[in-house]
Specification:
By secondary structure, this protein is an alpha/beta fold. Helix content is about 35%, strand content about 20%. Strand 7, helix 6 and strand 8 form a beta-alpha-beta unit. Helix 5 crosses helix 12 and helix 9 crosses helix 10.
Length: about 475
Amino acid sequence: MGSGQVTSWQGKNITVAGLGVSGISAARALAGLGASVTVVDGGDSEGHRAKAAELAGLGVSVRLGDAATLPEGTGLVVTSPGWKPDSPLFRAAAEAGVDVVGDVEIAWLLRDSRPDRKAAPWLAVTGTNGKTTTTQMLASILRAAGLKTAAVGNIGTPIIDVVLGDEEYDVLAVELSSYQLHWAPSVRAHSAAVLNLAPDHLDWHGSMEAYAADKGRIYEGNTIACVYNVADPATERLVEEADVEEGCRAIGFTLGAPGPSMLGVVDGILVDRAFVENRQRNAQELAEVADVNPPAPHNIANALAAAALARAFGVPPRAVRDGLRDFRPDAHRVARVDEVGGVVYVDDSKATNTHAAEASLAAFEPVVWIAGGLAKGATFDELVQKSGKRLRGAVLIGADRALIAEALARHAPEVPVVDLDRTDTGAMLAAVREAARLAEPGDTVLLAPACASMDMFANYNERGDAFADAVRELAAGSA
């Protein structure tokens, strides 16, 4: 489609791929604008049929049980984020010369469709880890500045619903995944941040280079600031490669003392040397490290990135501090569950890849590590090499636990390892009890699996809940 606006959706034949949340949102919106919409989905369950019946009432056609055939007459395909680029439907679209875009692209093209109000600028966030937390921190800071905002996109609220909804916003905090960026060629943010880059979703993107390139799309056309991680040179390279508006600045964030055009930390204070007068000499205090919840190193980095985007939008320093103080992280993100017998139990079930687990492990020492699950093609040697010295012990669960055990044997053979060969509902309680046995007062028992959860649990939330339940049962038994 290219960049620019669609003059009219009336009568346009659009196929929407998938009956998920974003697919239903796109179908409703486009049908409401007069498009002729067909949704295709490979499923045909009772739940699918119920969703199809609901959409039929809005004039949307739904084809179940066939997600591969392109409906005749299709002029545009709108995909849900999880559909792979090599899906048969998209191959058919390419052969027919039909563009494929995502719901984020549609939201961007619709942002000026309300004549009664001005489109809200987008402050956009991506990265392998920390996207949701940073986006929520950003929204909290913007609210503390008195701005009407919402955290949208990959964070759970379909962005089309917000763009076309009745609420009017001053600015949007937009979390974007690599999937969404792949299908969103026209998006041009006010300012954007890439928090970090590590191998993830390579089965979808095909290579690390393709994955990084899709992440880098977030910088295209930025007008004010491209925020990068000083500790992750790959993010700065994406800034250097981006085609931005004249005058757009590269702004770094670092856990060390910041140079000019950076935000960083000095003596326990978050400081800004980017959005101040005479940044060669001056720095502006924004908040204390203690204002960040939790004050783990990777979360301080998230706070600095959020602060950089907010400052790029003109938010005053006091609002950064107040917004960080008001922020409460979602569950299962470095969440302290309890202290039992002098040992602290921390739930970071959201650490579903090695990069996230490394950041989590870096926040504690000594650690009894509970890890394992579905590796998704990951290897664990580098993680163990970097974090092995912090470990008092390890308890391994899940389908691919042997991969972690082998990495521990190679790089940290002195660390005692408990290998739990069970996947029943009592497995997490057994893991917590084994971890308690290995731990000493002053230690942290940390659930940071470095793996996906679907081998044993419905999702990482259920896994984290099982851990918290097990810790509570342990506490009750020791009372």
